[in-house]
Amino acid sequence: MSKPAILVARAIFPEVLHRLENVFEVESNQDDHLFTPQELIQRLQGKAGALVTGSSRIDGAVLQACPDLRMVANMAVGYDNLDIPAMQAAGVLASNTPDVLTETTADFGWALMMATARRVTEAEHFLRAGKWNKWHYDLMSGADIHGSTLGILGMGRIGQAIARRAQGFGMQVMYHNRSRLSAEQEGQANQARYVSKETLFRQADHIILVLPYSAASHHAVGAAELAMMKPTATLTNIARGGVVDDHALIAALRERRIAAAGLDVFENEPAFAQDFLTLKNVVLTPHIASASVKTRKAMADCAADNLIAGLLNGQAKNPLW
Ligand code: DGY
Q1: Active-site residue, 287 included
Q2: Among the atoms of ligand 1, which is closest to the Cα of residue 53?
Q3: What is the pLDDT of residues 23-41, one digit of tens each?
């Protein structure tokens, strides 16, 4: 019996590719060429499955043009690149990679928040530029993390993992989410207190965004929310670019209406707003929150397992519908 044909749309770990090649007829992209939507459609012709990342958009037009497609495995927990209602209507299975990246992403949220509050990259740039010639009582003074109030917008698995880490820093945790956690979950999340979005923006010292991106969360943080924040507060975004209105954020940072921002994700990334580069009070990273070697390997394995289960047994391990 011939093997089903699949497309692996981006470069992945060779050992995961070999595992897929044992089961499928694989067209790979180890040169990591970024397909245009037209190229993606072309490559998907005759393919029963695809392993994709956030850079491949699977929408109604793609589905219509690729009638053989039966399953798309996303190598990410976020799946705003997949039009799930359209996939459901077309009977195309979809999966993501939850759980395997929770702790690594929470670690990075903390790293970025701490670097932002304590001005780590600004200080390093200062030192590398040869400007460090004397001690000064106020040199690169930032905001304390310990003992402060952490505000988490989006309290799913990653939000809760971030909250758990706050215990060691003696922080109060407040959160806002579409739905409130159970009392037991709040207890495990360092006694996190459910508050309105407005209370979170007005009272938190450090705000971290971990909510999924959708039409409903587009620009969830814009000029109005930034105006509510304390001038000493920081904002860290490890969610998705569209959650924040980047132009409103640039204005707030430039005018020092908030202290600083740590950004791992951007609107229209990787072609992000270049004005960020002119600001000292930002820490900028290229969407790497889940990028530990172990976790990226686990994500690739998880996506591969989903594709195998979905195409061979008709049931993905982590189905999205
Ligand atoms: C995710 O899993 O959604 C990440 O943003 C991709 O690394």
Answers
A1: yes
A2: 6
A3: 999 999 999 999 999 999 9
